[in-house]
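Go through this chain for my students:
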Amino acid sequence: MRNRRWLRFALPFAVVAGLATTTGIAHAVQQPDPTDAAFLSPTSDDGEGARLLADELTRRGIRVDVRTSTEDVLAAVAANGSATVFVAAPELVHPAYLDRLVRLPAGVRVVLVAPRKGQLDSAGLDVPVAGPRWTAAAPQPGCSAPFSSAGAAATLRWRYDGGAYDAVQCFEDGVAEFQVSGLADVTLVGAVDPFRNDRADEHANHAFATALLSRNDRVLWLDLHERERPPRTQPTQDPYEQDDPEWTDGGADGDGTGSDQDGEPRDPSTGQPRDGEGQTGGGGTALTDSPLARAFPPAVWATLALLVAAAIALALASARRLGAPVAEPLPVRVRAAETVRGLGGLYRRAGARSTSLATVRSAALARLAEHYDLPADTPADDLAERVAADTGHPVDDVRHVLAGSVEDSDGELVRAATAVQTLVRYVTGQQNWRQAPDEGNLT
């Protein structure tokens, strides 16, 4: 019985936890992985690839120039300035390169796909970020940008506020486009869905992505699938590179002052990471900047909070004893004898002799009060005096039968209960007086 009670308590929580965990795992598995070789690759036919988009751009006469490192992209822009730089995975680009990308000269358009707050901070952009949503939504454009004529596209998973740069905000802030101090035009797109092969036919995704990337006659497609190492040198002849020596690697062993051996940029004053995941700049708290908080994505904490809320809701829904007890009809009819036998078995198992005798005496007092037409709460002493006056027996003997001490054995309990029943039947005229066992005073 105890095991069943435990199961009844634990099973609902296990079911809710299992469903939530399964949903979270399925969602995580379905999310594209930027380190996958097919992720937004212009040569991949996989669902998360982007060959349909690259082929459409080629058919329109746009030259798709695939590069596998940011250094190659910067060199290509330096050789021939006008281009659209398509960065499919900003989280894999080293922070030093992000800053250089957004500072490319005018005539260059940089498209960043689903950048997070850390990447934008590394790029030196003051753009608040909200999200992510569970899935990308497809709102109407709501702006007059050239790509807005395509219609609703699944761009809204992250929101960007480019108000500091007088940005053009589209798709309910799922797309923000602005210029950085007279330099490159920057476009932030809040989801990867419009560029994927398996999402091309949904909404106006394909038309939006094509219109977005076809505004120059050349697209420099950064096909990056692993985290970049920092630049080893800081060439002063590159006019597009920020002159910031703290990002210099300092040699093949990675012993420079700006990065650690894993290529992670460090703040020279504190030695803490300065990338998007461990940024030491403002906006954080002791809780959000802790290693445990950074070890898991926000979706994990949201899932845990949802599990806690579901557990509380389930506990409230199952707590039938909250508030006053409510009388409910029995689901089946139970014979009185079975009820008495079952209750007696429980009393016997618990060794509750005093409770058993008190139950018998309580019923006897109620019958005697009804017989004498007295209130139901008449004390046992008053009833004993009334019975003694009618029967002629000593009042102390009658009081002992109706409210005596607790018995110490099953035999004494049986004799006491029999004496109570005999007394009630005699008084109510159901039988002649019989002397109860061990009650010699009642003659």
